[in-house]
Design brief:
Elements: E1 17-26, E2 32-44, H1 48-118, H2 126-150, E3 158-161, H3 162-176, E4 180-184, E5 193-196, H4 198-215, E6 220-224
Parallel strand pairs: 4-6
Antiparallel strand pairs: 1-2, 3-5
Helix pairs in contact: 1-2, 2-3, 3-4
């Protein structure tokens, strides 16, 4: 129990012995902070000025902790801002480089199409040209993915197929993480649909694979599966 010192007669418990003393103050957040002092041996009760000194000490301790938390939060926000600025700069640089590569790939695909038209059907050159065109189209897809990720876009939500969105991210994962083996047996499923943005979902998959690559050593294998799970009872 607590003694209401403000409305009590100090003379009534002068000379009393106690082993615990509590001081309580109101914090800036509107809560009550209590400091409890426990003594190994009974001692006399605290005088009013001593209790006031305890409350002042507790208020100073709380203010110091509050200032420390505010400073830590400010430093964390500044660090996040600097990181966001670096990511934005890297995204702008990657977008510019990808745009230039896209122009180069456009020329390769155009000349490759003309070469295929002039190559004799069944000739020795045709399979090499076809393989070159296939590789160039894969490179074009990866460059377009980089351009999509580097652009500022509206947070639009539309129905997307989960399997198709993850399958589209696999070439970019293989290109950015060559030491990572991705085992994704993604069977077409029309029930795997949700409302969202495919690029954001692909970023989630890429981040998970990147975390796996950074946290592992030696041979790294990531298995990606998509299943429809029916939940009958949902709790918040």
């Amino acid at each position: 129990y607590f003694l209401d010192i403000a409305n009590s007669n100090f003379k009534s418990f002068t000379g009393r012995q106690t082993t615990t003393v509590a001081a309580a103050v109101l914090t800036p957040l509107g809560r009550i902070a209590i400091m409890l002092l426990t003594f190994p041996k009974p001692r006399r009760t605290f005088r009013q000025d001593e209790v006031s000194l305890l409350c002042s000490s507790l208020s100073g301790l709380i203010q110091t902790a509050s200032d420390h938390c505010k400073r830590r939060n400010r430093e964390d926000l500044e660090r996040r801002l600097r990181h966001a600025e670096r990511v934005q700069a890297v995204g702008t640089l990657a977008g510019g480089i990808a745009h230039e590569f896209n122009n180069i790939l456009g020329a390769l695909l155009g000349y490759g199409e003309m070469a295929l038209q002039r190559a004799q059907e069944g000739g020795q050159v045709e399979p090499y040209l076809a393989e070159m065109m296939s590789t160039a189209r894969r490179a074009e897809y990866i460059v377009n993915q980089i351009l999509t990720l580097s652009r500022n876009r509206e947070q639009e939500r539309r129905p997307i197929n989960l399997v198709e969105a993850i399958r589209d991210a696999l070439p970019l994962i293989s290109a950015s993480l060559p030491l990572l083996e991705v085992n994704a047996r993604l069977e077409p499923d029309e029930d795997c649909k949700l409302l969202g943005h495919p690029v954001e979902l692909q970023q989630v998959v890429m981040n998970l694979c990147k975390n796996a690559a950074e946290a592992s050593r030696g041979e790294i294998r990531v298995n990606i599966n998509v299943d429809v799970v029916v939940i009958e009872d949902v709790q918040s």
